[in-house]
Amino acid sequence: MRKLRWVRDDDGLWDLDRSTPATLNGIARPVPSDPIPSVLGLSRGIRLSRPKQVDFFQRFMFMPFVPSYSLHTPHPQSPPGFSLQRVFSLPTFALDRWFGTVLGQFNLQKLVSGIKKNGFRQPTRQSPWFQSVAEHLSDKSLYAVDLCSEFYLTPDDSLLLSLESYGYDDYKTPRKKAVFHHKFPCHNLTLEAASPGLFVDKDGTFYDVPLTMAVDLASVSSSDSGPSYHICINHNAGPPKKIGSQQNDDATVASLQPGLSATTAFSFKNSIDVWRSRAPKLKMVQPYDIFLSNPHISATGIIGCVMTACFGDNSVRAPRGDGSKGFGLGVRRGNCALLADSFATVSLSAQHGTFQKMFLDLTRFQAVLDFPSGSTFFSGAASLANDVYNSRAPNLQAIQDICPNTTLSLHQQLC
Q1: Which pLDDT value is given to residue 322?
Q2: What's the burial of 284, exposed, middle or buried (CB within 10 Å: 0-12/13-18/19+)?
Q3: Contact 111/141 with Cβ under 8 angstroms?
Q4: At a CB cut-off of 8 Å and minimum separation 6, what does 395 contact?
Q5: How far is CA 314 from the centre of its chain?
Q6: What is the DSSP letter of 203?
Q7: CB-side neighbour CA atoms (13 Å) of 24
Q8: 212 half-sphere exposure, CB direction, 13 A CA radius
Q9: How many other β-carbons are positioned within 10 Å of the β-carbon of residue 221?
Q10: pLDDT higher than 90, residue 132
Q11: What is the model's pTM?
Q12: Cβ atoms 74, 80 nearer than 8 A
């Protein structure tokens, strides 16, 4: 339901952590992309961790195992497919201050594939059938374990520590992560360290960075309109390695190269209600989602700018020399670089229904026009105007540069 509410949660302004069933804790950081309006890497605020999600299913929905299906996997010896997860809560005497869990995963599809490939041995007196089953179940690559502890230091501070281990022969390095959250009255502060840090690009390719550290400060606004800003400082130590490859693909992921980068973004958002229903809701009936209970037709516009300073090998993402172009900027001197750009988004949302009835009580349409780079747009517009002025055939690349990324979505409640 969260994806119905937010305009920019997927591949948006802040490039939130990507949800993926390919990892045990359920998230991977996106590879910072260029142009830079989508380089900020951490999530806004505190999210429910994967162990807590599984614990919720077990406690309140009576599911002994939570199924997980993945089309991609960062581990070559673990084929994508169907897995089962179960969490075990650690006993604690401070339930309001500490939450400890052991999250286990069993790759059921790999077990079935192994049985089909190798088969069962013919049972004999010396080797009964259950020994053959035990041999298949003893394959360490079927299992993964995540030890997670969440400490609630104060009502506004939390610390999460996790240790994730896989049983694959080619992947012996456990994943360690520490995340600290602090809630200010109008800001969210996040400090994160991971070794190794897991990144995923838009094609589903996973990369490991030996050590990543980040500090993220984001403003929080209670209104649908107004200014907001975001500051993020990232440090990568060690060259990135493409998981599943025997060689480093350093040249293809310039933004993951070792170095320090500081990014700040400022945006202004304005929402206009063309129509919003004032009709009363059904009495004594709770909407399935309070954020999706108001029929409306509204438009939203976002415009902003972003700037990144790089120090280290990751400065190769900027062109050498003065790369000023349109409203964008890219300058590199030695191992230092400065990048800047602008961005804009226009969206239209229309909803019918209050999401209270069991059937057909929510119809929602949304259209999003995204201009991710102002420099690309204005340079394409200038090139296209020059072609028209000189009576030349328009350049296809210039037309593509001025066309926004368009997303259309339709949601319909059935039952």
Answers
A1: 46
A2: exposed
A3: no
A4: 383, 384, 387
A5: 21
A6: T
A7: 30
A8: 30
A9: 11
A10: no
A11: 0.78
A12: no
